Amino acid sequence: MSIVGHFDSLAEAQKLVQSKLLAGVVQETYEEGQLLQKLPVFTIDAKSIIYNREKEFTGADFYDIHEQIPWKADAQFATQVEVTLKRMARQSILDNFIMKTYKDPNDYRSIIMSGLTKMVLRGLEDKFIYGNATDAPKEFDGLNVLCPATGGHAFGDYQDYDAGGAANITPDMLLALIDKCKPKPDVLLMTRAERNKITKATWGKAGAIVYASSLDQFGRRVESIDGVPVMVSDYLSDNEVDNTGKKGSGTNLSSIYAIRFGQIEEGGLCLCTGGDTGGVDFFKLVDLEALEDYDAEGIRLVAYCAMALGSTKAIARIHSILQTADITL
Predict the structure, then answer these.
(1) What is the reported pTM?
(2) What is the mean pLDDT of the chain?
(3) Where are the beta strands (DSSP E) in 184-313?
């Protein structure tokens, strides 16, 4: 048996000492690609917003001298679009027993509040991409629904391209993706794996993809393709279901989105908010001082919001991209 000074063992000595607890919680979850920071906010004072999109216009005709010019009435709008606000909320209990009897350097309320905010934000960021009001009526539609998959292996008259699952993207497909987002996308949203593949394929080469790297005002590297910044998203799944873009498991398929941000009337992608949320404080904070049947207080965070797409041309996508295949220039 080992002897530690006066004590029989180290375990006995440790009974007389107390470790120091460092205040706070060390961040362990790091995620990039938060769309909330990029989305313009459109605030409404109703439960929904309705707007019209242009329909394909007819042209004009040529007429000779003194020829009668007929009156025409053929202008139409596309089907009206309605975006309905949805409620995202989460609440947590602050037990009075812990707050009154636990003596440590931590601010119990601030730790609960910080964790609560991160949980709600992570839920929102996931729904910005994978929200589906048809499958789950309480949700709003995300990018996956706003730019629905068609299953075609060409853009054609659609805003998306099916990479086929077994095939990989090509430079022509990337450049076509950029062209389909009118007039020009603000970002190319993709997974970290897809970004790394493009970086590897273009490193030190001058190919069909004009891939560049520059520094922003904070000294961070910003990649771009044909002048469009690449935005890595940890919220995009590497396991989407083939031909749908929905989350799956074990598929090794993902999507790349070209997105133009802007207000609805500008034809861009934005975030609709309502009520007393969407201002300086995105969430409405509700403090519940006494919970019935509990010796506890409560904190609730609530946001009324929904994604709104002005023009269908503000989003384009390549879906069903095989993550394990390399790009060949």
Answers:
(1) 0.84
(2) 84
(3) 187-190, 211-215, 221-225, 228-232, 253-259, 269-274, 284-288, 296-309
